[in-house]
Amino acid sequence: MILGGILSPLENVLTEALIWLHETVGLTWAWSIVALTVIVRVLLVPVAVRQIHSMQSLQIHAPEMKAIQQRYKADRQKQSEELMKFYKENKINPYASCLPIVFQIPIFIGLFFVLRDFKKEIFCTRGDFCETANDKLAVLPDFVSQLEWLSLVNITEPTIDSWGPVLIAIYVASQLTSTYLMSTSMQSKAQRYMIMFLPIVFLPFILQFPSGLMIYWLTTNLWTTGQGLVTRRLMPKPVAPPKRSSRTPPKEAEMSANGEGSSDGQLRPAAQSSGAPRRVKRKRGGRPRR
């Protein structure tokens, strides 16, 4: 398979990581997947920070972007050019919100290939745990627990087996929760609805995936939820640009009024009022009032 060949280096890295967590750290194969997920998410923390900053910036500058879209709604090409210019001037990456998912997809697919033949190619080669008879793989009962997670699922079996549907329900709930927490930072409702419907769209495929994949995706969703709660409390929000109203003078007028500059690039003193001089009332028999 072409995709499997492209991801072979990543598959080898994931395999070695799982073996190290199992043999050196002493975790079961199921908990090794959980630990591997945590390691991957820790490595992706800088990407997640950029994602949150970008979404906050998009939210703050949303009125200005909407004004640009309205101004050039008749010219789509000009609208795109102005928006890209606006993104560059304000250091906004509109695609940063997708980066964590983009980085995780290859890991998800690579882990799928690792778990697909895990029992035969990895589990049984780490010791005399398996016996082959009539082309069927039999795992000795003493080592079955090494493949189980919380006595609910076997990481090599389809998610639909045993207590797998319970994990699916928790997965969907965690996906909806993380989407709800992120909804305030999303620019459009379309993005919100798309992320909310993704778990439902993937359900028919996930049911046939190894349970180890579900453990990985459930762990990463729970991490995303916790990370969203923590970072939104600790990270300062970007400073919003000053709001301007119809009474706010243009920037050039302010500079000219303050004597900072003029259209020909020369400094000019502030304009003095050209009204008539103020008359001073005199008191009868007294000095002029000041």
Report on the structure:
The chain is 59% helix and 4% strand. It is built from 12 helices and 4 strands, in the order H-H-H-H-H-H-H-H-E-E-E-E-H-H-H-H. It has helices at residues 2-6, 8-25, 29-43, 45-60, 62-71, 76-89, 99-116, 118-123, 164-182, 189-206, 211-234, 251-257, and strands spanning 130-133, 136-139, 148-149, 153-154. A two-stranded antiparallel sheet has the order 1-2. It has a two-stranded antiparallel ribbon with strand order 3-4. The protein is elongated, with a radius of gyration of 31 Å. The model is unreliable at 251-257 and 259-274 (pLDDT under 50).
Topology:
Layout: H1 2-6, H2 8-25, H3 29-43, H4 45-60, H5 62-71, H6 76-89, H7 99-116, H8 118-123, E1 130-133, E2 136-139, E3 148-149, E4 153-154, H9 164-182, H10 189-206, H11 211-234, H12 251-257
Antiparallel strand pairs: 1-2, 3-4
Helix pairs in contact: 2-3, 2-7, 3-11, 5-6, 7-11, 9-10, 9-11
- Low-confidence parts: 251-257, 259-274
Strand order of the largest sheet: 1-2
Total domains: 1
If you compute it from the alpha carbons, what radius of gyration comes out, rounded to the nearest whole angstrom? 31 Å
What is the helix fraction of residues, given as a range?
A: 55-70%
Oligomer: single chain
Largest sheet: 2 strands, antiparallel
What is the first-to-last residue Cα distance?
95 Å
Fraction of residues in β-strands: under 5%
> How would you describe the shape?
elongated
Count helical runs. Answer: 12
Order of helices and strands: HHHHHHHHEEEEHHHH
What integer is the average pLDDT? 75
| Strand-pairing-aware structural class | mainly alpha
How many strand segments?
4
